[in-house]
C-alpha cells in the first residue's frame, strides 16, 4: 500500500525516511502536514533581548515580564493555530490519516487536525482532468509526438491490423482508494485502457472501425475500462475515451485505400443496378397486369357471346318443338334477311308474265342521298 500523494508530489511515511515518528510530512499544495512549529525558547529569548534594549531600566520589573508573557502567549496561539489547521483548496479534498489509517475525508476550506504524527493529511486534486494517450508519445510541450506501434497496432475480429491512437480523460473519483490502492495511477489507467481497446477491437471488423462505428467503439471501451478500474478499487472515474486516429498500417495503407475505392465502386454500381431494377420492374409489372386484364376482358366477352348464342339456340329449339312449321319459316326468313341485307337485290315475279322483273325502290339508298344533299 503506497503512501505517496500523487496529486501534490508529497511523500508519506515512506518518503520521509524516518518512519511514522520522523519529521512531519510537508504538503506543497497548501494542505499537507502543515509548517514546522517555531522554536519557542528561541523566540522568547529573542523577544526578551529586544525588550531589554527597548524598555528603559534594562527591561526589569513585573511589567516587562507581563509583556513578555503576552507576546509569548500570542506566538504560542498563532503557532498552535498554524500547527493544528490545514487548508483544502477548491479543487481538492482532504484525506486524513490517524496513526497511518484512513480516518475521514474533509471538504475544501479551513479544517482542524491533530498534530503530526497523530494525524497526516493528503490533499489530492479531485477536479483536475488527467489525460493519458495510447499510441503516441508526448513531447516536452505536451503535444503528440512519435508513433508507438507496439501500443497502436491491434488485430481486428476479421483478422486485419489497424493502427489506433486514442486518449483517455479521467479524474479522481474516490480519493482514499486512489491514494492507497495504486502506486502508479497514470500507468495503471494507460495499461487498462490499452487492454480494453484491444478487447473491443478484437471482436469488431475493420470496416466499421474506420467509418461509422467510432462512437460505438469509444462508448464500449469507456464502459469496459471503468469496469476494470472499479474491480481494481482504483478510485478513478473515466470521463471520456476519444479516438484520435484509426487507419490501416502505414505499410499497406495505399493498397487498403485501393480496396476501399473498389468497394465504393462496387456499392455504387449495385445502387445504380438497384435503381434501374426499381424503375423497370414496376413498368413490366404494369404491362403484365394490363395484358392480363385485357385477356380477362376478352375471355369474358367471348364467353358471354357464346353463352348468349347458346341461350338463343336453346330458345329457337324450344320454339321449334312447340311450332315446327312457324319456326322453320321464321328461321328461313331470318336467314334470307341476314344473307341479302348487304347485297343488291332484283325481284322477279313469274306470275305476272313477261320479264317478270318488278321495279324495286331502294329506300335506304334514297335516304342516304337525301341526307347527303341536305349537307
Describe the structure in your own words:
With 375 residues, the chain is an alpha+beta fold. The protein folds into three domains: 13-122, no CATH class; 130-248, Band 7 domain (Tetrahydropterin Synthase, Chain A, 2-Layer Sandwich); 251-340. Helix content is 52%, strand content 18%. It is built from eleven helices and 13 strands. The protein has helices at residues 13-16, 40-54, 62-84, 149-152, 175-181, 185-202, 206-210, 214-232, 253-322, 324-340, 363-374; strands at residues 85-88, 94-98, 101-106, 109-112, 119-122, 130-134, 136-138, 144-147, 153-155, 161-172, 236-247, 347-348, 357-358. The strands form five sheets. Strands 6, 9, 10 and 11 form a four-stranded antiparallel sheet that branches. Strand 7 and strand 8 form a beta hairpin. Helix 6 (185-202) crosses helix 8 (214-232). It is rod-shaped. The termini are far apart. Mean pLDDT is 77; it is low at 1-36.
| Beta content | 15-25%
Average pLDDT taken over every residue: 77
Work out the helix count.
Answer: 11
Q: Would you identify the CATH H-level superfamily of the largest domain?
A: Band 7 domain
Under CATH at level 1, the class of the largest domain stands as: Alpha Beta
Oligomer: single chain
How many domain regions?
Answer: 3
Question: Shape from CA axes?
Answer: rod-shaped
Briefly note the structural class of the backbone.
alpha+beta
Terminal residue distance: 124 Å
How many E strands? 13
Helix content: 40-55%
Most strands sheet: 4 strands, antiparallel
CATH third-level topology of the largest domain = Tetrahydropterin Synthase, Chain A
User: SSE order in H/E notation?
Assistant: HHHEEEEEEEEHEEHHHHEHHEEH
Question: Which consecutive residue ranges, at least 5 long each, have pLDDT under 50?
Answer: 1-36
CATH architecture of the largest domain: 2-Layer Sandwich
Global Rg: 55 Å
Amino acid at each position: 500500500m503506497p503512501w505517496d500523494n500523487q496529486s501534490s508530489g508529497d511523500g508519506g511515511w515512506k518518503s520521509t525516511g524516518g518512519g511514522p515518528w520522523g519529521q512531519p510530512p510537508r504538503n506543497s499544495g497548501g494542505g499537507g502536514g502543515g509548517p514546522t512549529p517555531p522554536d519557542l525558547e528561541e523566540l522568547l529569548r529573542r523577544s526578551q533581548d529586544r525588550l531589554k534594549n527597548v524598555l528603559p531600566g534594562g527591561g526589569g520589573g513585573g511589567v516587562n515580564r507581563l509583556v513578555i508573557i503576552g507576546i509569548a502567549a500570542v506566538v504560542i496561539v498563532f503557532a498552535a493555530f498554524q500547527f493544528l489547521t490545514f487548508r483544502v483548496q477548491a479543487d481538492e479534498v482532504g484525506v486524513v490519516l490517524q496513526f497511518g489509517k484512513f480516518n475521514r475525508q474533509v471538504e475544501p476550506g479551513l479544517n482542524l487536525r491533530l498534530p503530526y504524527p497523530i494525524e497526516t493529511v493528503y490533499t489530492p486534486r479531485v477536479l483536475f482532468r488527467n489525460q493519458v494517450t495510447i499510441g503516441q508519445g508526448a513531447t516536452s510541450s505536451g503535444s503528440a509526438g512519435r508513433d508507438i506501434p507496439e501500443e497502436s497496432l491491434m488485430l481486428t475480429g476479421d483478422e486485419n491490423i489497424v493502427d489506433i491512437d486514442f486518449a483517455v480523460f479521467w479524474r479522481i473519483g474516490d480519493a482514499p482508494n486512489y491514494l492507497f490502492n495504486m502506486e502508479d495511477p497514470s500507468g495503471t489507467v494507460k495499461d487498462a485502457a490499452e487492454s480494453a481497446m484491444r478487447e473491443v477491437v478484437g471482436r469488431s471488423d475493420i470496416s466499421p472501425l474506420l467509418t461509422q462505428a467510432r462512437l460505438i467503439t469509444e462508448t464500449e471501451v469507456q464502459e469496459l475500462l471503468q469496469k476494470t478500474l472499479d474491480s481494481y478499487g482504483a478510485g478513478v472515474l473515466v470521463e471520456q475515451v476519444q479516438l484520435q486516429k484509426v487507419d490501416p498500417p502505414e505499410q499497406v495503407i495505399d493498397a487498403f485505400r485501393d480496396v476501399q475505392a473498389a468497394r465504393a465502386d462496387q456499392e455504387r454500381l449495385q445502387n445504380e443496378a438497384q435503381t434501374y431494377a426499381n424503375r423497370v420492374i414496376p413498368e413490366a409489372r404494369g404491362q403484365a397486369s394490363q395484358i392480363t386484364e385485357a385477356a380477362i376482358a376478352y375471355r369474358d366477352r367471348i364467353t358471354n357471346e357464346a353463352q348468349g348464342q347458346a341461350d338463343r339456340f336453346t330458345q329457337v329449339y324450344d320454339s321449334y318443338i312447340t311450332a315446327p312449321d312457324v319456326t322453320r319459316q321464321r328461321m328461313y326468313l331470318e336467314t334470307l334477311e341476314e344473307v341479302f341485307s348487304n347485297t343488291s337485290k332484283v325481284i322477279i315475279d313469274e306470275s305476272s308474265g313477261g320479264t317478270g322483273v318488278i321495279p324495286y325502290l331502294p329506300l335506304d339508298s334514297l335516304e342516304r342521298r337525301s341526307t347527303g344533299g341536305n349537307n
